[in-house]
Design brief:
This protein has three helices and 23 strands. By secondary structure, it is mainly beta. The protein has a single domain, classed as Beta Barrel (Porin). It has a 14-stranded antiparallel β-barrel. The chain has a two-stranded antiparallel ribbon with strand order 6-7.
């Protein structure tokens, strides 16, 4: 038994933390840009009863729109990630552009009831590292003898190569106008992980899956002042796929070349509070939001093989809950044209103890702007841009990396020491239309 267990745990332990390996521009691996209006105001939208693109941030806002709405758009993300390591390092090769949908339909049923459906991609991105990026993980390691023959060696460690996670969130919601000033909403979050590809130099895991949660929100509007709250629960997504060992030397010492496997991915809960005030009535409005993301749900990942139910790998992350502070403003130049601007500061949930090169996260600054143009009484076109600047992370660990432990832990060790830098360019384009439903 030991002869078979050693290679599986030692070579796979850290690589499958790649479930979070998608390089994202927001806290952890979240993508909080849910509409072009949100993108343009650094996601300070939870207390906005006016803009069409605010409904996806707070479905209770549907109650304050006189007509039904359909918004459809795309989010285009271009990340740039690099690490400077003596004897290694380099740029992560990402897809040319990561594209995510932004769709929201709001149907006004009567004067009190509304229903909505949103489709967004709140988590996920893609990263590709070259095999020689981390020198301390390159080469081979001796196997203990006994039970292995003297001089036996295995590949040192699985360096992450391609990591891809695409998650869509379908959010059906119902809103009720309690009083002329107060509306409440409830709905479901139906998550579909439509693609998960977690590759290393030694192993590969591909699969898909899903899970579900719920969301609750409320909005209060009084004259020029408004306040909003939105909460999304913490779901667990079950991913099923195929786990393969790519290096024949591992197969020769007992590793199964391929088997089906599964893992549970815990997504964080999300809480956003906001207040908004029209500084100049029907002209200039400013909103301040506070967001808390429950990354403490993301503690570890276990990959379980289906052949005998054994744990193929276990990866420690031990993230903390994280805050973000957002401020956004809208200015109506004229009735048909609105300018938008925003700034946000996002704290990282990732400490030093389990730092991962697959998610080399850090505090970041988000700068955004945008414009909305009404083409007629019903149709509106919106454009937004955001620049995300990560603070450089000069990571130095004193905990040595030991490839012969079972499982071999890479996160938080000297193998990842280096200077990491990241920035992201994001563009949003959206078209919306309004119509009478009753």
């Amino acid at each position: 038994m030991r002869r078979m267990h050693f290679p599986l745990s030692a070579v796979a332990a850290a690589v499958l933390a790649v479930c979070a390996a998608e390089r994202s521009h927001a806290s952890g691996y979240a993508v909080p840009e849910l509409s072009t209006a949100g993108l343009s105001t650094a996601n300070a939208m939870v207390a906005n009863p006016d803009e069409r693109g605010a409904i996806i941030y707070n479905p209770a806002a549907m109650a304050f729109h006189d007509q039904s709405l359909i918004n459809a758009g795309m989010l285009f993300l271009g990340p740039d990630l690099s690490v400077d390591i003596p004897g290694g390092g380099g740029d992560a090769t990402t897809a040319d552009w990561f594209v995510a949908p932004m769709i929201q339909a709001s149907i006004r049923i009567d004067e009190r009831w509304s229903a909505g459906l949103g489709v967004t991609a709140p988590f996920g991105l893609e990263t590709r590292w070259a095999p020689n990026t981390f020198p301390e993980l390159t080469g081979t390691a001796p196997l203990p003898s006994p039970p292995f023959a003297p001089g036996s060696r295995i590949p040192l460690s699985p360096q992450p190569t391609q990591s891809k996670l695409e998650i869509l969130d379908f959010t059906p919601t119902v809103t009720y106008l309690v009083t002329p000033q107060l509306a409440v909403s409830a709905g479901a979050d139906i998550y579909w992980a439509k693609a998960a590809q977690l590759d290393s130099t030694l192993t590969q895991l591909e699969g898909d899956g899903g899970g579900w949660g719920f969301n609750l929100s409320a909005m209060y509007v009084k004259d020029r002042f408004s306040a909003g709250i939105n909460f999304h629960s913490a779901p667990t997504l079950t991913l099923d796929g195929t786990y393969s060992v790519l290096d024949p030397r591992l197969v020769a010492i007992g590793a199964n070349p391929s088997q089906t496997a599964s893992l549970d991915l815990d997504l964080p809960w999300r809480l956003q509070l906001g207040v908004r005030y029209e500084v100049i009535e029907d002209k200039l409005a400013v909103e301040f939001d506070w967001t808390r993301t429950g990354w403490s749900e993301f503690q570890e990942i276990e990959v379980k093989g289906d052949l005998n139910g054994a744990i193929l790998s276990r990866d420690e992350n031990q993230w903390d809950d994280a805050d973000a502070f957002r401020i956004g403003a809208t200015y109506d130049v004229r009735d048909a044209t609105q300018l938008r601007v925003g700034y946000a500061f996002d704290k990282t949930p990732q400490g030093d103890d389990y730092f991962s090169a697959r998610v080399p996260d850090n505090d970041r600054h988000l700068f955004s702007l945008g414009v909305a143009q009404k083409l007629n009484e019903r149709i509106q076109v919106e454009f937004g841009y955001m620049y995300v600047l990560f603070e450089d992370r000069d990571y130095r660990s004193s905990r040595p990396y030991d490839p012969l432990t079972a499982p071999a832990e890479i996160n938080g060790t000297t193998a990842l020491n280096g200077d990491y830098s990241t920035d992201v360019h994001i563009f949003g384009l959206e078209v919306s239309t309004s119509f009478d439903a009753f």
